[in-house]
Amino acid sequence: MTLQTLDPDPSVDPDSFDQSVLDALAGDYRFKVWGGDWCIDCKQQLPAFGAALAAAGVPDDRIESFPVTKGPSGKEGPGVDAYGVELIPTVVVETPDGTEVARFVEEAEGSIAEALAAELADAEATI
Questions:
Q1: How distant, in Å, are the alpha carbons of 9, 101, 102 from that of 60?
Q2: How far is 29 from 21, CA to CA, in rounded Å?
């Protein structure tokens, strides 16, 4: 099962993204995305995030999507328990060795891409 809401929104102009956001996303990171095609927040946010990843040139092999369903005790799906996913969309950014360096959960000021870029800039500043 794929997460169709992560497909890049074709109406988003790649030139509309701030270059610093694209540069941050283009780093050597892995993106793990939990969402549901049934979820209103995911439908609103993930297509633009998919477009930002595409504009940043992030290869598909560095993006993993995890479809989430609603179960009797909350969100269910691959990696939900291991990563503590309670709200969607959730995006976890990891280094190639699997160290988590940024996380977006459901909503923030601005877009997913902007929120993650700010966290990644903070992470880079502490290295």
A1: 16, 19, 19
A2: 14
Angle between helices 40-55 and 112-126 (to 10 degrees): 60
Identity of the amino acid at 98: G
Q: For residues 8 and 47, is the Cβ–Cβ distance under 8 A?
A: yes
DSSP 46-69: HHHHHHHHHHTT--GGGEEEEE-E
Tokens 């479809």 belong to 67
Q: What is the pTM of this model?
A: 0.92
State the first-to-last Cα distance of the chain, in angstroms, to the nearest integer. 37
pLDDT tens for 58-112 read 999 999 999 999 988 889 999 999 999 999 999 999 999 999 999 999 987 789 9
Domains of the chain: 20-126 (3.40.30.10)
Plot region of 110 (φ>0 → left; ψ -120 to 50 → alpha; else → beta): left
CB atoms within 10 A of CB 38: 13
